[in-house]
Write a structure and sequence with these properties.
This protein is an alpha/beta fold and 505 residues long. The chain folds into four domains: 2-158, no CATH class; 173-263, Orthogonal Bundle (Helix Hairpins); 279-396, 3-Layer(aba) Sandwich (Rossmann fold); 429-505, Alpha-Beta Plaits (2-Layer Sandwich), CATH 3.30.70.1450. The chain contains 21 helices and ten strands. The strands form two sheets. Strands 3-2-1-4-5-6 form a six-stranded parallel sheet, sandwiched between helices. Helix 17 (355-368) links the parallel strand 4 and strand 5. The longest helix is centred in the middle third of the chain and has 46 residues, at 232-277. The chain starts with a helix and ends in a 6-residue tail after the last helix.
């Protein structure tokens, strides 16, 4: 038995077909990041609504035979397959077996198939006992029409708003359970008291169930009036039950309002992150301050962006100013991991006022992926070295940059005007970077053989690795990942970018 389990586990672990198949079903059933999952959800929503419509229609009408066949057999079969597949993709059974086997080898003890099977069943039980899995299980019982109506609760799996509502309830699980127990206690005491007091005198109370029904209606302040107390003691119990029930409902209402208020910000942030993840290239700006405002006001800043600000008051002001801001701490690992785009297409700008915090954010970004391009703001040259050690690709020192531009404007006003025009792109000339990719046809060509003049461009320099080469030799061979610094008309730069993938004779 032990050898059989281990052999099967290692076979499944090495099987490419098995792992790809399991991943396929997991992506379409459970993976929220899979854009195609939306269509699967719509398909199941249609099946659920069709089944419920059949139940409703059959109450007063004779259902066509083909609808009965579709609902009773086809839809039920699909729901059974869905339940089995969800149970299958929940966890990895062969990983548990391999882990227990390797543990036994390391500790030089006998491999226990009994304990291994127990761990496997416990893992699957975690899914089976979940409320949504219980609903799925009941929904595949087609024998009784009344039971099949529970299929409508399967919508909680597929409709986001319902899922978010359930998440809010889950976040206040302890408080809600406490209030529910208190409400049940009040109903129990009130119902028993009313049954004892008026069980023989009130014609409307014929059983203990009638008394509990009256207690529930009174405690929840519904008051249908179908059961009313006839004795003075019964009226006193009724008044006490109503007052206590009103207090419990007030507490429950305030609890739900506070829970939704707390969750609303998180829901909005998740929506913003989901929208930005759909974009191929975007910029993450850490910190909302004066520099962030100046950056976003620039006409040349056309990138999609998101701002992460941990100060909620500052973030609220940014939202009022019309910017996309989420309240979170970018120095935390799980915050930047929410961005699921290709990391090579993400640029991160640290514009916080605290150097230490910006360094932590830089370290966090680079620990997730070295491909994330990080530009950081530093307060001094000494801090610049620390940012470079942390992994920042570029470091900006606003004070030094401002002083340099001021001195240039005073001592060399014409040079300042030229530099400002080039950097701002306000006149004809532009300075821009052109990255050389492996598939471009200028790779492995000499710089002298590339028609920069024909495209009305001036090559300023070339960055290769950490080295910048000013006015490179015409015999230098271009490599993949080189970055060309060119100057010229914007239209010329855009045309050159397009044509380097074609013929550049």
């Amino acid at each position: 038995m032990e050898n059989f389990l281990v052999k099967i586990a290692f076979f499944l672990y090495r099987s490419k077909w098995y792992n790809q198949t399991k991943k396929f079903f997991y992506d379409y059933l459970e993976n929220k990041e899979n854009p195609s999952k939306h269509y699967v959800d719509l398909f199941f929503i249609f099946l659920i609504l069709f089944s419920v419509f059949d139940l409703v229609y059959s109450v007063k009408n004779k259902t066509p035979h083909w609808i009965v066949i579709v609902d009773y057999y086809l839809i039920t079969t699909i729901f059974i397959l869905e339940y089995i597949l969800r149970l299958w993709v929940h966890g990895n059974t062969h990983h548990i077996i391999i882990k227990e086997y390797e543990k036994s080898k390391f500790l030089q003890i006998d491999f226990s198939s009994k304990d291994t099977i127990k761990n496997i069943l416990l893992e699957k039980w975690q899914y089976i006992k979940s409320p949504i899995a219980i609903i799925d299980l009941v929904a595949i019982i087609p024998l009784y029409r009344e039971i099949r109506v529970i299929r409508i609760f399967k919508l909680t799996r597929y409709i986001r708003s319902v899922k978010q509502f359930l998440d809010v309830l889950k976040s206040k699980y302890f408080e809600l359970v406490t209030l529910a127990i208190l409400l049940l206690f009040v109903i129990g005491v009130s119902g028993i008291s009313m049954y004892i007091i008026e069980g023989n005198t009130n014609s409307k109370i014929n059983s203990l169930l009638d008394a509990f029904y009256w207690a529930l209606i009174t405690a929840t302040t519904v008051g249908y009036g179908d059961i009313s107390p006839v004795s003075d003691m019964g009226k006193i119990v009724s008044m006490i039950t109503a007052v206590v029930g009103l207090i419990i409902i007030a507490f429950g209402t305030s609890l739900m309002v506070s829970a939704f208020f707390e969750k609303l910000g998180e829901i909005k942030d998740n929506r913003i992150i989901e929208d930005i993840n759909k974009v191929d290239n975007f910029v993450i700006i850490c910190g909302y301050g004066q520099m962030t405002k100046m950056l976003l006001r620039e006409d040349n800043f056309n990138s999609k962006y998101i701002i992460i600000e941990k100060n909620s008051d500052v973030a609220k002001q940014g939202i009022k100013d019309g910017y996309n801001i989420i309240v979170d701490d970018a120095s935390k690992h799980n915050v930047l991991e929410k961005f699921k785009n290709s990391y090579s297409k993400i640029s991160l700008i640290c514009l916080g006022n605290d150097d230490i915090e910006n360094i932590y954010i830089t370290l966090n970004a680079k620990s997730i992926s070295k491909e994330i391009k990080v530009v950081a703001r530093a307060s001094s040259s000494m801090m610049e070295k620390k940012f470079k050690i942390a992994g920042a690709d570029n470091v900006i020192i606003p004070n030094i940059a401002a002083n340099t531009m001021l001195l240039t404007a005073i001592n060399n006003p014409i040079m300042y005007s030229a530099m400002h025009s080039l950097l701002a792109g306000k006149n004809a000339a532009y300075l821009d970077e052109i990255r050389v990719f492996g598939y471009d046809n200028i790779v492995d060509k000499k710089i002298g053989n590339i028609a920069f003049k024909e495209h009305k461009l001036l090559l300023i320099g070339l960055k290769r690795g950490d080295e910048f080469i000013f006015n490179p030799s015409k015999d230098m061979i271009l490599n993949s990942d080189d970055i060309l610094l060119v100057m010229g008309l914007k239209i010329s730069i855009e045309y050159f970018n397009k044509t380097i993938q074609g013929s550049l004779s």
